[in-house]
Specification:
Layout: H1 2-8, H2 13-42, H3 50-71, H4 77-89, H5 104-109, H6 114-125, H7 144-150, H8 160-186, E1 189-190, H9 196-199, H10 207-220, H11 237-243, E2 247-248, E3 257-258, H12 264-268, H13 275-287, H14 304-310, E4 314-315
Parallel strand pairs: 1-2, 3-4
Length: 317
């Protein structure tokens, strides 16, 4: 039995030191727990009476109110401008106005932001004038939606200066239009040789359709008629009607396909031939040498319209 207890309560040297430290800490905790409450009961609170503290708080708040009344809030002018705009925008009213005479307050009342109103006034102070309602759309900072909302209410007074300037502007616009029309009439573009830069000279032809015209030309082997432009997906009919007199084609430049040697794959790549038609040509060619487009009449897959288009692209050798 003694050996049993000795085995259980046997500690190494380091364990004994640790046990002593633990006992000391426990004693300190117990002592502290006994002494701290007694110490706290002896110290008086900073404010033994809550009424004193509350009276000091009220006094401090009253001093802040006095200073705010005396010196005002320390807000920036921009804050006041935004606040005024917020209040004004909540009660926007529309009325007829002349942008050459209305003051900044009037523009804000119409629902414009203060900085836009300032831009308008600065423009006028530098000698700028609004001669047409559309001129107002060029104001820096003016949103398209605001212009559309205000345009029906813009009424510019007819002055001699405005009438003279308007007539001058209209005259210049007419001259530019005539010069542009004359330049368009003098442009002639050959579709089988033109690059995208040449095509972009035509009215209504930008980068996209210029590339589409060249791409379709390469697939066909060339154009035999200007009307083939309408075969391009979504090509605008109005644009075609306007530019067709400026277009020419040279059918001699078309790259033709020798049907007696071409593979089914090559025939099928042409926009006017599908796989079944290409396969039928190949099978007919195995029976006889093809001499002309009339040989294709033996193939039921071809209509007269198909043959009329195809004869421009086929070579029989």
């Amino acid at each position: 039995m003694n050996s049993f207890f000795r085995h259980i309560f046997f500690f190494t040297k380091s364990q004994k030191r640790g046990l002593i430290v633990l006992i000391v800490l426990l004693i300190l905790v117990v002592v502290a727990n006994m002494l701290i409450p007694k110490y706290l009961r002896k110290t008086k609170p900073l404010y033994s009476d809550n009424s004193v503290f509350l009276s000091q708080v009220d006094s401090f708040k009253n001093s802040l109110s006095d200073k705010e009344y005396k010196y005002g809030n320390t807000y920036s002018p921009a804050d006041f401008a935004d606040a005024r705009y917020d209040m004004a925008s909540s009660a926007v009213r529309l009325f007829d106005f002349d942008p050459n005479t209305l003051d900044s307050g009037g523009f804000v009342a119409l629902g414009l932001k203060p900085f836009v109103a300032k831009n308008i006034v600065n423009y006028r102070n530098k000698g700028g004038r609004f001669r047409r309602a559309d001129d107002f759309a060029r104001v820096y900072g003016l949103l398209p939606a605001d212009f559309a909302r205000l345009k029906p209410y813009i009424h510019i007074a007819d002055t001699k200066e405005n009438k003279s300037d308007l007539q001058t502007i209209q005259s210049i616009d007419k001259q530019i239009e005539n010069a542009s029309q004359k330049l368009e009439n003098n442009i002639v573009v050959e579709l089988n040789t033109a690059d995208t830069a040449a095509l972009r000279q035509l009215h209504g032809i930008g980068n996209y359709y210029a590339r589409q015209i060249v791409y379709y030309r390469d697939k066909l082997g060339g154009y035999y008629s200007v009307d083939q432009l309408l075969e391009i997906k979504n090509f605008p009919v109005q644009t075609f009607e306007r530019i067709k007199n400026n277009l020419t084609v040279d059918p001699a430049l078309i790259k033709k396909i020798n049907v007696n040697w071409a593979t089914v794959e090559k025939l099928n790549r042409h926009p006017y031939l599908n796989f079944y038609q290409s396969k039928a040509i190949f099978e007919l060619r195995k029976k006889q040498k093809l001499q002309s487009i009339d040989d294709f009449r033996q193939i039921s897959d071809f209509s007269d319209e198909d043959l009329k288009k195809l004869e421009n692209y086929l070579l029989f050798k």
